[in-house]
Amino acid sequence: GESVGLHLPTLSVQEGDNSIINCAYSNSASDYFIWYKQESGKGPQFIIDIRSNMDKRQGQRVTVLLNKTVKHLSLQIAATQPGDSAVYFCAERGWNFNKFYFGSGTKLNVKP
Amino acid sequence: SAVISQKPSRDICQRGTSLTIQCQVDSQVTMMFWYRQQPGQSLTLIATANQGSEATYESGFVIDKFPISRPNLTFSTLTVSNMSPEDSSIYLCSVEENMNTEAFFGQGTRLTVV
Fold first, then answer.
1. Which of A15, A104, B80, B103 is spaced 20 to 30 A from B23 at the CA atom?
2. Per-residue pLDDT tens for A71-97?
3. How many CA atoms lie within 13 A of A110 on its CB side?
């Protein structure tokens, strides 16, 4: 499969701080990206997506940034809460392959 | 978004046996996929379940070990055959309602092989 990797396997932040989770992808043909959140014992949950014709997209407390030049994706979580503690995965898909490949995941620990 | 139900949610199986996992969606979907997630790791795509034809397997996965059925647009099964302890994992069903849209996941089936 395609190579999608993350810089930090574990991230600890203080409650109320902002979190930034990074992801590098290798396929320049990828044009659609998704961030997923996975809580213990559950399936991945869609958080936010972005297509390659954009470099930024905002949701509720989350922002995804896409830098196609360096093939880098990030997820920013504002005012991190204990409920944000989970493993976060980025996933990529290209126009020429109709399936998602997942990064290795980052575990986010929110300290009270 | 589509509601995805997987059965069973968990099982403990004897080595050498087979387990069939079911994935039921509450609406017709274009794409259905099966993933494996080994403990503490990311998701690895096993195959794309194609309606009315053979599944498309990723490198490292074969039909004899992971036979897949998809008789219609709302249902698919994954069988883990001749299980060994190395097959202990979470198996996840994923769907896309339309082409080139987000993928949604079931809650997964936690399989332990003893």
1. A104
2. 999 999 999 999 999 999 999 997 667
3. 18
Nearest alpha-carbon partner for A6 in A101, A82, A99, A96 = A101
| Separation CA B78–CA B61 (nearest Å) | 12
Q: Do B36 and B96 meet the contact criterion of CB atoms below 8 Å apart? A: no
Token look-up 């290209």 returns A94
User: SS3 string of B20-48?
Assistant: EEEEEECCCCCEEEEEEECCCCCEEEEEE
Catalogue the long-range contacts made by B35-38 (C-beta closer than 8 Å, 24 or more residues apart): B35/B91, B35/B92, B35/B93, B35/B94, B35/B105, B36/B89, B36/B90, B36/B91, B36/B92, B37/B89, B37/B90, B37/B91, B37/B92, B37/B108, B38/B88, B38/B89, B38/B90
Q: Which of B81, B37, B44, B50 is nearest to A41 (CA)?
A: B37
Which residues of chain B are modeled with pLDDT < 50?
Answer: none
Place of tokens 């005012």: A79
Using the beta-carbon criterion (under 8 Å), do A91 and B104 form an inter-chain contact? no
* pLDDT per residue as tens digits for the range B19-43: 999 999 999 998 999 999 998 889 9
Which of A6, A25, A34, A38 should be substituted to probe chain B, the one whose Cβ sees the most B Cβ atoms within 10 Å?
A38
Cβ atoms A85, A31 nearer than 8 A: no
The predicted structure's pLDDT at residue B113: 98
Q: Which of residues 51-90 of A touch B (CB under 8 A)?
A: 89
